[in-house]
Amino acid sequence: MVTTTEFSVAIAGAGLSGLCLAQYLTRAGIDVHVYERDPGPFVRRQGYRIILDRFGLEALRESLPRPLFRLVLATSDEPGGHLRFTDSRLRDAFTITFKDEAHATRQVDRLTLRSILQSGLDGRIHYGHSAIGVEESGRGRLRLHFSDGGAAEASVVVGADGVRSALRAQLMPDAEPANTPMAGVYGRSPLRRNGESVIPEPLRTSGVLSIADRPGRAFFFTSMRFGENPPDAFARLAPGSYAPTGDDYVMWGLLLRQVEVPFSFRGDLLALRELAARKSAGFHPLIQRLVDTAELDATVLNPFATGRRPRRWAVPRATMMGDAVHAMPPFGAHGGNTALRDAALLGSRLVEALASGTPVEDAITRYQNEMVPYAFRAVDTAAGLMRRLTGNAAAPHWVLTRVLPRLHRVTVPEA
Ligand SMILES: Cc1cc2nc3c(=O)[nH]c(=O)nc-3n(C[C@H](O)[C@H](O)[C@H](O)COP(=O)(O)OP(=O)(O)OC[C@H]3O[C@@H](n4cnc5c(N)ncnc54)[C@H](O)[C@@H]3O)c2cc1C
């Protein structure tokens, strides 16, 4: 039996799941440290928003101190809204309406969420530490190794190092994700020009997936309006924590085939934005304007991959969470929510084991057995949606782009 005082957790990766688990364990009085590859907390723009569903929100409610959870809700967009599927000229095919309830679905700015998740973890997040492997160090402890030759010891190691995980090949040797034919070029554009919203009123609370006439191409956009301005909300609920500036924006993503992105463009922001402009030329003028006004340094290329179910967990007392296990294409907004759900579940299983004196290995096995079914349901759903919305199957594409839009009036005139 391990007692709370001699028990410690080392997490590789200070993304959504790693920080959420660190919050959960810190609240429970457990010694936890997070090791992050990036040299500092805000070196990458990550200028997009994510939709939190009931699983993500519940995980945050369980993990965060009350004022920080209130901060998530205070800075998020208003609840409710729609997801519209349209043709390339923004004529509606069909619409999904989200519940207008505070705890059902909320749109949050990812950078703001990360900042909230870091609050109160001073001295527990170590930047510039790139994890490369795990080994038994004896006396029931593990050693997490870093690329600079350093190492950290802990009772349990958790790999939360994202879709290109360095720990996966060792911890889940049969579960390397599969590549897909699709990728997204993401960008962000100011929501207001000369004081006016660039998004017309009928789309104010909508995410829009506009499907091109040719299969395999689509354009997504949605606006992110901060509920309360982050600096004000942080001053009230997390004084002393870093508050990102809260300018409202439009997040967009051009979905295209990976073969359409020349290899030399990867990491070249200007080339990526110009590619997005060329490939969105056939879409509604509103979409073209979004690409033309995009902030260059927020441009990101994301090749889509799908995780494979792990059959074997190779290192006892080491486990994994989030995209490192269950990478999925960003259809249906499940990736981050599933990652947060993993963190709260693993946190609760570890805390229960310590309280009841059951072996930590059993707690980790229970976590893995519960996580794999729900996480891979989400992977299958996301991959299925991607195939239906961007695949080559002629009938669904024809119905979405030719039949259904004719049944609706024009939503956004092309003036
Ligand atoms: C444009 C876009 C929109 C999205 N929208 C949504 C949405 O609406 N809803 C939703 O649920 N999900 C969404 N997602 C998916 C979501 O962002 C991810 O699923 C989520 O961030 C996964 O969390 P994670 O903790 O597993 O990994 P991440 O948040 O990616 O964090 C991994 C961390 O590990 C660090 N790291 C990497 N390698 C190492 C290493 N070797 N050692 C130490 N640290 C390392 C990375 O720097 C990073 O900080 C979206 C994704 C994209 C790209």
TrEMBL record:
List the top taxonomic levels of the source.
Bacteria, Bacillati, Actinomycetota, Actinomycetes, Micromonosporales
GO molecular-function term, one example from the UniProt record: monooxygenase activity
Query: Tell me, what's a Pfam family for it?
Result: FAD_binding_3
- In the UniProt record, does the keyword Lipid metabolism occur? no
Mind telling me what this protein is named? FAD-dependent oxidoreductase
Could you tell me the superkingdom of the organism this chain comes from?
Answer: Bacteria
Domain (FAD-binding) ranges: 308-381
Concerning InterPro entries, the annotation shows: FAD-bd (IPR002938), FAD/NAD-bd_sf (IPR036188)
Q: Does the keyword Oxidoreductase apply?
A: yes
Q: Which residues form a coiled coil?
A: none
Arranged from A to Z, the UniProt key words for this protein are: FAD, Flavoprotein, Monooxygenase, Oxidoreductase
